[in-house]
Amino acid sequence: MKAAIVTVGDEILIGQITDTNSGFIAKALDKIGIGVYEMLSISDDRLHILSTLAFLQNRVDVVIITGGLGPTKDDITKTTLCEYFDDHLVRNGMVEAHVVDLFEKVIGREASQVNKDQALVPSKSTVLHNAVGTAPGMWMEKGNTVFVSLPGVPYEMKYLVENEVVPRLVTQFERPYIIHKTLLTYGQGESHIAERIEDWENNLPEFIKLAYLPHPGRVRLRLSARGVDEAMLRDRIALETEKLRGLIGDIIVGYDEGDTIEVVLGRLLAEKGKTIATAESCTGGRIAQLLTSVAGASAYFKGSAVTYSASSKVTVLGVPQELIDKYSVVSAEVAEAMATGAQKIFGTDFAIATTGNAGPSKGDADAEVGTVYIAFATPQGIYSEKYDLGQPREKVIERAANKGLEKIYQEILKN
Amino acid sequence: MKAAIVTVGDEILIGQITDTNSGFIAKALDKIGIGVYEMLSISDDRLHILSTLAFLQNRVDVVIITGGLGPTKDDITKTTLCEYFDDHLVRNGMVEAHVVDLFEKVIGREASQVNKDQALVPSKSTVLHNAVGTAPGMWMEKGNTVFVSLPGVPYEMKYLVENEVVPRLVTQFERPYIIHKTLLTYGQGESHIAERIEDWENNLPEFIKLAYLPHPGRVRLRLSARGVDEAMLRDRIALETEKLRGLIGDIIVGYDEGDTIEVVLGRLLAEKGKTIATAESCTGGRIAQLLTSVAGASAYFKGSAVTYSASSKVTVLGVPQELIDKYSVVSAEVAEAMATGAQKIFGTDFAIATTGNAGPSKGDADAEVGTVYIAFATPQGIYSEKYDLGQPREKVIERAANKGLEKIYQEILKN
């Protein structure tokens, strides 16, 4: 069973926007055993859309189209679908009621006629309810091929893929079972991990595939088993996961696909009834933002002092001015005083503090670009480490935030 | 003149890797007036590659292919090119010498036979020298179409595009001029903007296209003019931009492609020599993180108190406990006291404060999910506004952060 993913929109073709939708959809399809034959990005051009649909109809079972569903003139996907299906637009009452409601309750003004026209859909289409936006998804069939049209706004597309498209595909098509297991590791690179698990990997059965999904500072390992006997696949995946735990248990922090270091850390803190705060200079609130991106964070995250200026490190966190004068703001001593200060003012068990130079040029202190001190305050005491996190700016911030969370996680485990 | 960009490799089709090469190439081509007709990602499959090349030959002037040039078995682009061009591989002495040299000097070991075989190229191809890697680029022509094959490693691809491909295309083809202008607007939706500029949009000349690029809380408008008379295009884009300023100047905050609200706000604060701080509850540090994502933010951003717990609002920001008891933590009164507190402890001209319920469930206070109070402290005084920002959690946080920055920007403009 094969699918094609089509992105409609000039902004991708001139390189202004990177298409991340196709990758998301490909992952979702891969999980349910549907292979992607081809991904295409084409322009908001009627003839181009028509010829692409015709081309793909003979080649795949499912065509998923994103983009071109907005209310403005350059959005022509819907009328072009009508042309391809020899159909016409009709007003869908449920969609219109939803649009009117969304405008009233969320946007706080009345929906205009243009907004209400989002409710115009091809008469032959099945509407896919878009709870998080105004443009509905549409499901149409021609010959043996399913065509699904989705809005290009990533979170609306994601909502529809997860809640409407995948469940319908699973019901409508027979596919092999695919069982995935994703493990989250922190602190070691892809090639290092590959060496540690080489023998195990070489002895994996044919029907299990291993993929390395690397990100800065962390690597996900995904095991995928494909076959007809679901129970056997589950048992074998569980067995291989156990073997992996034996080999690299020291760097595995999570066993679920949604696991990130902030999710795992939050779960651990909540379980232990412990609390955390941060004091951030060069990370500028990124660690706090990661921690609070998790629902329910208020149970264990108490707050953060983002002390970007030197004076606020003194006034807000109580870092002694003498320390700054003697060692400079980018130093182990100041990082540790910041962490202790955060622990104190927020009254928490643990605290992380960062001070460094994220670049692009040298700041107040003489520290090289990429130099970051991270301090870790625990009930047992305080320590800090110095890191050279390279460049550019956004990578330094990201690496420092991940490193801080990874290290404090190890500390919390001990408590 | 039209181009197509083809990416070869299974890792993109299963969503493991996001294709950023195509966007880079598209931008480079767009700059020299070559429009991209289509982008495709296809598998490492001989027949699929052959049919794609044949399909594109009739449609575009230039086909740029990346990927599948590595030394391993699954890299078949080169042999497939030979098949398409009815050609055979020959050993290129210059490339082999370069590979041997690169291994000796950079990698520090002798090149193996597999490495040396990177010097095998189709006999009809023009070799494009890859100074930063072992796989050469290849330039071939069939009919009126140029086919360029490049390695998929991003920095090698970039080197070849900039140093070999673009210079050759500029010499070989006559192209039109393309002038872009991107405007950043805040605070109004795509459809609302479309209504306000409808007459103007309807009267745009044929050679200028308008695109709406929406994100939560902001919309970019991109004007693209294409033609042979560069000076005329520039003049007309300037004229239309002026007209737009007249129509929607109140919501335009930036006139450059890299402009975001945090960049524009930072520029304004730096120009005026003013400073800012934030006090964040429900946004959890997101506003601070946005402000500090801009290089040089330390000139105007002093810090943030992320007071997630009620008690830290009292101890860190000096919010009176009575206010919290009387109005609850999610209230206009507490938001305003937080903003005043931030202004005071960080010693800044401006401050933004947020308190609300980002969801998914009701928190400490009785506030509905999505309810957020944002307070704005200025040298003239303090005020706050109540917003219903819907759901889910990450959207509430993102909308509140954008709304806070947008509003304070308007305040700073007045000062």
UniProtKB/TrEMBL annotation, chains A, B:
InterPro entries: CinA, CinA-like_C, CinA_C, CinA_KH, Competence-induced_CinA, MoaB/Mog-like_dom_sf, MoaB/Mog_dom. The lineage of its organism: Bacteria, Pseudomonadati, Bacteroidota, Flavobacteriia, Flavobacteriales. Signal peptide: none annotated. This is CinA-like protein. Residues 4-172 form the MoaB/Mog domain. NCBIfam families: cinA_nterm, molyb_syn, PncC_domain, PRK00549.1. Belongs to the CinA family.
